[in-house]
Amino acid sequence: MAVSALSQLFRATAPEKKEGEKTISYSQFAMWSSCPHKWKLTYIDKHKLGGPSIHTVFGTAFHETLQWYLHTMFNDSVKASDRLNLEECLQEQMTQHYMMAVQDLGGEHFSTPQQLQEFYEDGAAILDWFKKHRSAYFTNQGYELLGIEMPLYIQATDKNPKVIMNGFIDIVIRDTKNDRIMIIDIKTSTRGWNEAAKKDKIKASQLVLYKSYFAKQYGYDEEKIDIKYFIVKRKLIDGFMYPQKRIQEFVPASGKPTRNKLLQEIDSFIQAGFNQDGSYKEDGSFPAVGHKGMKNCRYCEFANNEELCPKANRIC
To answer: pTM (2 decimals)?
Structure first.
């Protein structure tokens, strides 16, 4: 999806890709970790069956709206950020991203006005709650904003100089008193992360990996970098007897043993999928992994495609 005009206000430009380099994203690694065959079908064979959804449109628009607020708060003042019409911004960004996605699909719509309105109203409720409780999560007293959408563009593994990790970090803040860095990733969710989601290693490891790459690229001590997922909930539990928060924070384990193990898994991914010149290893081994109960296949675009992913070849 294209970068909107608002995002361009605070997104830094990543370094230019050099000849022969192959860029990867965390989502690629996550897909390979879940099912190497799906990764092969998507990236080597170019069978990209997925497309935009109301969830991606809402997620991008909400990110940009909240980032605009924080950009204003840290670079101007809390009063200035509180004067912003965030609800109008969210609506404009949702409309803009939806229309860009429809244009990319050749004019095909993938949502309805009713659904777009529902998601907008959910987002407006989150923003209203956030503004009332902002001080519990962000302050510009003793903290500075190092960047929004800070680019990561760094060699993914020492074992292959041609494969580059390319991504953007939502929010980076520095505690000026203690000289510590906080890397924050905004996640939009229907009802937040339950215990199963928190224990999902693939879901929780993105910031752990970014912590290592950020330290190396920007010259910070890894041990002075903290990470946190900032999860916003579209829906609350009906009939719940206690007040509910619209925001959930989750801090995954990111100590040295955890980081080293994750980097070893990145090494395995790159060795399995890429040649030393950065090209894809088309003759590699990419098993179709369904996992217990074939849970990986439940929402996979290739689940019912016997030609591309025969059920008999899947590993449970």
So the answer is: 0.92
